[in-house]
Design brief:
By secondary structure, the chain is an alpha+beta fold. It has helices at about 5-25, 80, 85-90, 115-120, 175-180, 215-230, 235-250, 255-270, 275-290, and strands at about 30, 95-100, 105-110, 125-130, 135-140, 145-150, 155, 160-165, 175. The chain has 9 helices and 9 strands.
């Protein structure tokens, strides 16, 4: 006779194996608690004491090792997934989730039979996974996440997590314009465009010792690559990169709107919102006094 403890052990071990398989495939994973939710903030991060992460108001280099910040805690690092800090979470985990945007993917979450019928009539075929009440359609490509884009349809890509329900069936295809169009909203005339760069430039007036095209271009390119190649702790990486760029060029006015736009674009491609980019940039400037 199988003891209930053995069943729980088998379940969390299976969840961890699935997470490691996802990580090996380049898909950031994390455990889910009851209600299909990420584990709550740890003591060190409660009340934003850590300095902030993407879903919080402030920006900051949080280095918490526990999966306490939702989608941003998802990782492809097996050392983190199997660490002692995560062990207690896996023992309590009821499911596994992943960050689609971190793997260059978008999940169209179809939560009703009517939504599935609509998708089969409207969207290009792609890899599909059966869910509790419908299906997940997985496309190659990223976009902003959005809930209730139409009845029974959510989009999960950047800054979101999706429950892992198995490998699915079918060939994954490129994210179609029909899905991107679902999240498009008319801009408010009272607000700036959503991706406008609002960070001020020209904030330095000291003598520039390195205003050479090659030096500056190399620095911006390296900063972009550092952000793009981040597999976990994306928000912290963005903040540290902004800090490094400002340390080198923030005191002499080398940076232009075009340079900052490139850094913001790299961060937004990894799931950061324009507001989080602006906050991280402002916090980095404040930390350096520039």
């Amino acid at each position: 006779m199988t003891h209930p403890t053995d069943i729980r052990r088998d379940h969390w071990a299976e969840h961890l194996r699935n997470a490691l398989d996802l990580a090996a495939a380049g898909v950031p994973a994390l455990p889910l608690s009851r209600g299909k939710r990420p584990f709550g903030n740890c003591t060190a991060c409660t009340g934003n004491a850590c300095g902030g992460r993407p879903h919080m108001k402030a920006a900051g280099p949080c280095q918490c090792p526990k999966p306490c910040h939702g989608w941003a805690a998802a990782t492809t690092d097996p050392a983190v997934l199997t660490s002692l800090e995560w062990a207690a979470m896996w023992r309590e985990a009821l499911a596994v989730a992943y960050h689609p945007g971190g793997a260059g993917l978008t999940v169209v979450d179809l939560d009703t039979a009517d939504a599935v019928t609509w998708a089969r009539r409207t969207l290009p075929a792609t890899r599909t996974v059966a869910s509790t009440r419908g299906e997940h359609w997985i496309y190659r490509g990223t976009m902003g996440s959005s809930n209730a884009v139409r009845p029974g349809v959510d989009i999960k890509s950047t800054m979101a997590y999706a429950r892992y329900l198995g490998p699915g069936t079918g060939t994954m295809t490129t994210l179609p314009d029909a899905v991107r169009a679902l999240a498009v909203k008319e801009p408010s005339p009272a607000r700036p465009a959503p991706h406008a760069v609002t960070a001020p430039t020209g904030f330095g007036s000291g003598e520039c010792r390195h205003r050479t095209p090659a030096y500056l271009e190399r620095g911006i390119h390296m900063a972009e690559q550092r952000i793009i190649e981040a597999r976990s702790a994306v928000h912290a990486t963005v903040y540290r990169t902004f800090l490094a760029v400002l340390s080198a060029h923030g005191g002499c006015g080398c940076l232009t709107d075009a340079h900052i736009a490139r850094l913001f674009a790299a961060a937004q491609a990894k799931g950061e919102s324009p507001r989080h980019c602006t906050d991280a940039w402002a916090n980095a400037r404040a930390a350096l006094g520039v």
